[in-house]
Amino acid sequence: MKRARSVRARAVLGGVAAAFVLGGAVLAAPAVTTLPTQWRIRAPQGAVASVGTLPEGLALSRDGSRLFELENGYRKPALRVLDAATLREERTVALDGAFGVPLRDADGDGVWVAVAGAFQEQIAHVDTRTGLVDKDVSLTLPFYPVAIARSPRDGMLAVAGDLGDRVAFVDPVRERVVATRRTGSHPAALAFSADGATLFVADRGGSSVDAIGVPSSDDRSPDASRGDASGGAGRRRIPVGLHPAAIAGDGARLFVADSDDDDVAVVDERAERVVQRARVPFARDGAPGTSPNALALDGDRLYVSCGAANAVAVFRIADGRLTPLGAIPTGWYPTAVAVDRAHGVLYVADGKGESGHPNPSYKPFATTSPAYIASQLVGSIRRIPIPDDTVLASGLREVETLAQRAPADESGVVRPNGPIRHVVYVIKENRSYDEVLGDVPGADGDPSLVLFGEHVTPNQHALARRFGVFDRFFEDAHVSADGHNWSTAAFANDYLEKMWPVNYAQRRSIYDFEDAARASRPKSGYLWDEAARAGIALRNYGEFVSAGPSKPTPVSVSDDALRDATDRAFATFDMKYTDADRFAEWKREFDLYEKNHDLPQLEIVRFPRDHTSGTRPGANTPEAMVADNDEAVGALVDAISHSPDWASTAIFVIEDDAQNGPDHVDEQRAPFYLISPYAAGGVQHRAYTQASVLRTIEILLGLPPMSAYDAGAVPLTGAFRADPDLRPFDALAEHVDLHAVNARTAYRAADSAALDFAHADRVDDGTLNDILWHAVKGARATPPPYGLFTAATASKTGGDDD
Length: 802
Description:
The chain is built from 16 helices and 39 strands. The protein has a domain at 422-564 and 592-795: Alkaline Phosphatase, subunit A. With 802 residues, it is α+β, with helices and mostly antiparallel strands.
């Protein structure tokens, strides 16, 4: 029996959606906006509209009068129908899940969409005129549909299952699966051959496209939904670039977007082999990071959306080859492109919209908070007149100008073989600048937003006073999933950017973003891969590790380059372990290294307990956990500064992201500490990022950049001075009871007990933030009032040049 259609017959009023995200409202934008990453975007030349979170796919109606946009971010998934000329919203169809590009009917304006969610594994057909879902087809778990294609031979649909590593062939008339076929890892995109006999599948987990024989009518089993049908031709593998994310075909050739190789592979369909690898024209040599992720064919042109570069690359197709024509600047992280030659218009979806956002109204602890970073990360749609070749050439120069391309600035203290020969890199969890350092005099902080000020974090405040306070330090990351990748690879690839929002929205259970996860691994690897290649001595404490079979230690390590370099006795992310215990284990090894005079050149240390466990009964209070974290940081600096290696050491202390706190400048602003005898001290107003820290570490250790982001980042050269101050740092005693525990009567104690603190960010952040605010401020405390985003606050993300 066919199961109930849980997404059928839902029509959502446009006014409701407009109130939610200003859906379809035409926006005004400044000429150039500096993002928290310190890359810049140009204001659009045509209309632009705000939509929901992570717009991911675009399709046009047959007459070009309407634009269909599918979004799949942290907020409720939806299909939006926009007036193509004005980008005004006509209606929104709420969905239980969504992914990929809507597939328009061959003979109408209905669309098929992939409904990918924790409790939904199906494709659904939406009547875009009425906003009703009138068909759906269930898929066998686990599947997680991410792409749909239609056969030119008989209209059969193929659906790619990211978590099932297979495709399902669907009869859209009878609304049922008729066959399934195995694919490679994480199939992401589909295209039928011109004769419909072959299905090409991009295997995003690897570096290949599968060519799969399409089952004939005789091969189609009525029981195919229960497993793989055995009939049909076999699967052939076509090697392409790393992590292919999109496919488009013109009948003779396939164009494959290699998302981690900065190129487009051209495949001869008949020969099933690559005949060209066309490089994205604005990609940096030796520093990957454009993330080509979507394609649109228009006659003799191919448009390639490049998410990480905030641009669309444009190629000419001639004699079966691609020649670069130029580029089109876009908004923040383009994810989809659609072209309407008849009206001379290009549409681009920008997954992260048009700017960063301050979040002073974020209630670190309301049941729900619209100012939570993942909820604020709303996308946009740009309507762009199709440019001619001259404009495209000019656009290429502009895209290269808007990207951050700072000189390496290897001078003074920050240079290879300089006075600094040891780097200690400390990664903490999830706090914003104002939440911790908003009370520091002379810097740009808002004391009203402070939760864990000097009373709770005396060591961090003392370190800031002596070694420098950085009030323009921004995370490239948004949450821990991408945060630990930005912190260690200076990059989050397109797979990660697309998958973390649905994981955090609890619509995708798999967290495959750390510990050697395959599809999210970037081209150049991580900082430890660089160190291994260069022969740099490394010791890792807690990064990219997993708990053992029954206890937090000994930890397991999947990454080959990290395995032998990791202290297996250093605990994983587990809030039951104190950071004082983690420090003690680090100190045990540190003392041995000092005794033997063989301190590693690079140490990575994870102190995660400032994440807290909310008000879970019996767990330490939020203030106790943050103070424990502060004590560990102070003790580590104390130990190093009293050692013989202090004179040759730089300590960098970052948060992996800033998601769990309010900030009046930007939701990606976070505390950062540079600690060294060579630290210049004072208030540092120049803007730096996570990529800046990695670039500085790389320069000090003589390592190359890993991505376009650290290659172009401003290193911290100006934050060092030539004359060292060799006085040691004496850690301060904590004012907070480090052993204080939450009572059963604590604010929302029962809710805290139900949260999953086994891994970073496994909990609902709105709930945790409400708990923390009231746990610190009192059960009757009123969170900060809602603030307004203004051009003045937006400009603060750029920082000062001096």
